[in-house]
Amino acid sequence: MEITASLRHALLTDREQTLTRIYQRAFPLVRHYVVQHGGTAHEAKDVFQDAVVVFYEKAVQESFVLSASVSTYLLGVCRNLWHRELTRRARLPLTDLTDEHTQQVADAEPTADTPDSLAVLTYVEQLGERCKSVLLAFYYFQQPLEQIASTHHYASVRSATVQKFKCLERLRKSVRAALSEAFAHA
């Protein structure tokens, strides 16, 4: 409990230095794990960055209690994120898009058979223009974060990544709340 409080204080008072120390200790472990499990050093950086965002947001909350070292916690989060990525890749193998694929997507019209996708778009619309723009640019148009950072005038790619994460979390919370409400009335 004492360590968690001092960590929270360090993150709130000197975030950059604290996160740099955490990075220096934990990232080599994460890089080793991801590379050993079919990833690249670049993918390890992406996974680690996502894990640090999750860690930071939890660590600054008063209710957060760390029961392991920061490195162990981050490695656990990274292992879960990497496992999720590998599962996603197995389900959706990479294929090259042809002009035929592009035309099929362009010709596709939303129908009454696709209410779920339209419902999600409704929630995206409710997030506000900035979040909507960031999420659509990344997930729908598959723009690189560098381009999104530039287009949306973020100070860095990291800022764009954090904003994308926050918008995605807001979207998840909205959808979860709606699903909970729907199941409660069913």
TrEMBL record:
Report the residue ranges that make up the RNA polymerase sigma-70 region domain in this protein: 23-91
Q: Which GO terms describe its molecular function?
A: DNA binding; sigma factor activity
Species of origin reads: Hymenobacter daecheongensis DSM 21074
Protein's UniProt name? RNA polymerase sigma factor, sigma-70 family
Q: What UniProt keywords apply to this chain's record, in alphabetical order?
A: DNA-binding, Sigma factor, Transcription, Transcription regulation
Q: Name one GO biological process term.
A: DNA-templated transcription initiation
